[in-house]
Amino acid sequence: MSNIAIKVEGLGKQYRLGEIGTGTISNDLNRWWSRMRGKEDPFAKIGEVNDRTVKGNSDYVWALRDISFDVKAGEVLGIVGRNGAGKSTMLKILSKVTAPSTGKIKIQGRIASLLEVGTGFHPDLTGRENVYLNGAILGMSKGEINRKFDEIVDFSGVERYIDTPVKRYSSGMYVRLAFAVSAFLEPEILIVDEVLAVGDAEFQKKCLGRMKDVSRNDGRTILFVSHSMAAVKNICTTGILMKNGQLAFQGTADEVVDYYITNFLQFNSDTKVDLLGAPREYDLSRTIEFKSIEFLEPVENNMYSTGEDIVLLVTLKSKVDRDAFRLGFSINKLDESPVGTFFSGEELSIRKNEEKNFIVRIKNHQLAKGQYYISMSTGIGNELTGTTEYDIVLKTLFFEIAYKDLLKTQMMTLWHSEWGYVNFKNVEIKSL
Fold first, then answer.
1. Which of 3, 99, 186, 212 is 20 to 30 A distant from 413 in Cα terms?
2. 260/254 Cα distance (integer angstroms)
3. Do the bridges between strand 303-304 and strand 102-107 make them parallel or antiparallel, or are there none, so unpaired?
């Protein structure tokens, strides 16, 4: 195990739904007697897989079942899967927050875990005091923390509030400081759950860069859970895919992400999506909001070829008279990596209580072969004067590009491998 930082063998975690205990005194005594004799828990032999989409018949659920894998020292392991697949449960076991029901784990080195916003922080202590407290929990001496303190504060960007109790921090400030402590106090193993989603885009980029640095330059081991397939591909060397508490696939990061997208992410072939009254990820004024978006000239299975324009019919509803607003869209791959964006000028207009249709025609799109989704926004302003978003809708319509011209396919694949981003210059937006 000299080169193995983490070894997991037959790991399982079972929970009982509802009340704690077996339900009867005799069954509780039976469980206690088995444990005293070093025998397997007799009630762990029953239970169902953790499929949250079905009701089930048993009160016992395996959050994890028979998980085995190795993580080499200096490796960055990406862990992906749908919500409820068992990712966070496994990290809590590795972090020794909870104990496994079956199996065993072997770990070489100190572990720093960032499982939730503010993990290991005391709300009544200041940021400065929590840095020292968290460092001590990680086994660092005061001298080691002193040497790293300025770097931690600088990276977190909360210097102005470092002597303020952290209960007054925003969730973003919390996670900034918590990640900085974990990353700079040099644990041998860093475990990061989806908490980075709380930070803004700039901070997420800093965190991903930092994790790359500590892995490649310092040889530290990282376990990274994320729903961002682009981030997993970017920083991880290997990966595992989890489904219903079990290991579904493992391999390189690219192999795992590609397998996940191909086999687990449902490709939505709808040609129209109704958005009025639908929940939004961003809580905005919705002064001008999206009512619906559809492909105006749909093709079979939303599959476009090289020369076909992508045409959208966008219906907006306004609460105010507005003589100048803008409409924009972005296109991403299914692994969430960005492909390109477009924003109109502020030449669009709409009247109060009006429902108005706009045609968006994307010409000569230069998209490489693959599957994509469209997100859209409406608002006012520009990059120079500042922007105000009225409404943003994410992942509205999905489509696929399949080239018929082999030569052009090869040229566009080269284009994307070199540049990776498309400048949508030939876009027309007009009202009906």
1. 212
2. 10
3. unpaired
Q: What is the mean pLDDT of the chain?
A: 81
Strands 370-382 and 322-333: antiparallel
Residue 370 in tokens: 């693959």
Shared-domain flag, residues 351 and 413: yes
**Residue recorded with tokens 């990290």:** 91
Q: How distant, in Å, are the alpha carbons of 37, 72, 363, 401, 412 from that of 405?
A: 70, 44, 17, 12, 11
Structure tokens at 362: 């994307």
- Give the tens place of pLDDT for each residue, 98-118: 889 889 999 998 888 877 766
Domain span at residue 354 reads 272-431
CATH number at residue 358: 2.70.50.60
Contact 105, 8 (CB under 8 A): yes
With cut-offs at 50, 70 and 90, classify the pLDDT of residue 290.
very high
Q: State the pLDDT at residue 372.
A: 87
H-helix or E-strand spanning residue 391 = strand 386-401
Helical segments of 185-293, H only:
201-216, 229-235, 253-263
